[in-house]
């Protein structure tokens, strides 16, 4: 971790590797400052890691980076102990939270953190970049909540980019809150909802049997991507309802396999 005048710089890194005994080892599990990593009880061949927020943040001027590399044949599940809250802090300027993920051929990653909450006065830019091998598997969930209860949101911008076998299948950006382009909260945007989420599922079998586009209820949709992948987009009044929509969508996709 590095503390500078403009904020804190912190890096967390995970490497998952097949251990040769039917399980997954973690030769690299290293977190700094606000990004503490804890290995929890494994489930079968899958290693499990929890990201624990050891400090408040990200605050204004902070730059956090999380990297996870899943090697061939390894299986990794990453969650977080609690929601991440973007706060204004004392330093001026935008905070950044970067996520860099890679899944090799035959590897599998479940990236399922808790919600990101954009508190009033905060300014956070999140980028998520994922590279998946041709026979890799991925379940990635992102949930963003605009403001705490009864609170106006801060400014939140995010970009998620997913590539499979070197081909980009998703490149999506979202901006919300003060200073965001007009209409973000209107009928063509979030429609007054305060929770928004995405679920990206990559599975080799989707190449031969693409997911059919469909609507789930009034506030979620499943869309096939240009590759062995599917995207679920959802909005809801609050975090609890959003999680329910995304869980329902994942169950529906699981039933296809």
UniProtKB/TrEMBL annotation:
For the keyword ATP-binding, the answer is no
Keywords of the record, alphabetical order, are: Chaperone, Cytoplasm, Nickel insertion
Localization, per the record, is:
Cytoplasm
The source's superkingdom equals: Bacteria
What do we know about how this protein assembles, alone or with others?
UreD, UreF and UreG form a complex that acts as a GTP-hydrolysis-dependent molecular chaperone, activating the urease apoprotein by helping to assemble the nickel containing metallocenter of UreC. The UreE protein probably delivers the nickel.
What does the similarity note say? Answer: Belongs to the UreD family.
Physiological role? Required for maturation of urease via the functional incorporation of the urease nickel metallocenter.
The protein's name: Urease accessory protein UreD
Native species of this protein?
Streptomyces cyaneochromogenes
What is the name of the gene encoding this protein? ureD
């Amino acid at each position: 971790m590095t503390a500078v005048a403009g904020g804190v710089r912190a890096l967390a890194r995970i490497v998952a590797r097949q251990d040769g005994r039917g399980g997954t080892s973690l030769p690299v599990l290293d977190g700094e400052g606000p990004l503490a990593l804890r290995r929890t009880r494994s489930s079968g061949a899958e290693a499990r890691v929890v990201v624990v927020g050891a400090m408040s943040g990200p605050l204004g001027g902070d730059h956090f980076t999380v990297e996870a590399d899943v090697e061939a044949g390894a299986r990794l599940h990453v969650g977080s102990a609690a929601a991440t809250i973007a706060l204004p802090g004392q330093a001026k300027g935008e905070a950044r939270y970067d996520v860099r993920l890679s899944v090799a051929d035959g590897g599998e990653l479940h990236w399922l953190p808790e919600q990101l909450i954009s508190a009033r006065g905060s300014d956070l830019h999140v980028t998520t970049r994922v590279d998946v091998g041709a026979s890799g598997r991925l379940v990635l969930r992102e949930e963003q909540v605009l403001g705490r209860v009864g609170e106006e949101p801060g400014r939140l911008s995010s970009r998620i980019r997913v590539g499979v076998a070197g081909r980009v299948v998703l490149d999506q950006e979202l901006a919300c809150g003060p200073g965001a382009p007009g209409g973000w909260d209107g009928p063509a945007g979030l429609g007054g909802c305060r929770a928004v989420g995405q679920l990206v599922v990559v599975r080799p079998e989707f190449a031969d049997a693409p997911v059919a586009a469909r609507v789930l209820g009034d506030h979620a949709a499943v869309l096939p991507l240009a590759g062995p992948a599917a995207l679920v987009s959802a909005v809801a009044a609050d975090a609890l309802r959003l999680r329910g929509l995304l869980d329902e969508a994942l169950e529906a996709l699981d039933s296809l396999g």
